[in-house]
Amino acid sequence: MQQALRLYFRDTNVNQVMLFGRVNSQSDNGEVQTSSGLPAFLISLISTLEELLRPVLPPPTHTLLFPPKTAPPRARQAILNLYNPGEGISSHVDLLNRFGDGIIGISMGSGCVMNFEKHSEHKDMDDVGKERWELFLPERSIIVMTEDARYSWKHGIEGRQEDLVESEEGTDSGYCLGQI
Q: Is the distance from CB of 49 to CB of 103 less than 8 angstroms?
């Protein structure tokens, strides 16, 4: 995280950086050149995530996020956001077909609550009582979103200074312990 802050967020007016990995290309002499185009710390993070998530993700989801080296090359995008206390992410549904499916979010600086609300176009009678969820993402946690989580549910983070989180026992604890 410190390296990202030093590299991309020295200017206090900058709060988002988009980085794109390059697909394989050919040089003038016809040789295939491979360069991810991403900084070394992100390449290392992606490699670590690939191994950490292998035992917990369904195999098709893992393959979607980390295609085998034998698969045709694809572009990879990394978005780094820096949120100051009180800032959030407007509730939204991801745009279908703008990017490939599957995103990994990592909460690095502090924890926060992410809200999920069934998008009005996707509500039906079976959804009564299940239309809104709040998920606490502790510092250093990972969230993987694919398919309906991205396209059928609005998701965002309210802009507030702090989140009140109840423990599993229902008491106010301020922190959520355990696995999400």
A: no
Task: In whole angstroms, give the CA distance from residue 133 to residue 153.
Answer: 10
**DSSP-assigned letter for residue 82:** -
Backbone angles phi, psi at 56, to 5 degrees: -110, -15
Break the chain into its structural domains and give their ranges: 1-24+31-82, 84-162
- Helix or strand or coil: residue 143? strand
pLDDT tens-digit series, residues 14-42: 777 877 775 444 455 555 445 567 888 88
Q: What CATH class is the domain 84-162? A: mainly beta
**Using CA atoms, how far apart are residues 165 and 138, in angstroms rounded to an integer?**
10
175's CB contacts (< 8 A; 6+ apart) are 111, 138, 165, 167
* The model's pTM: 0.72
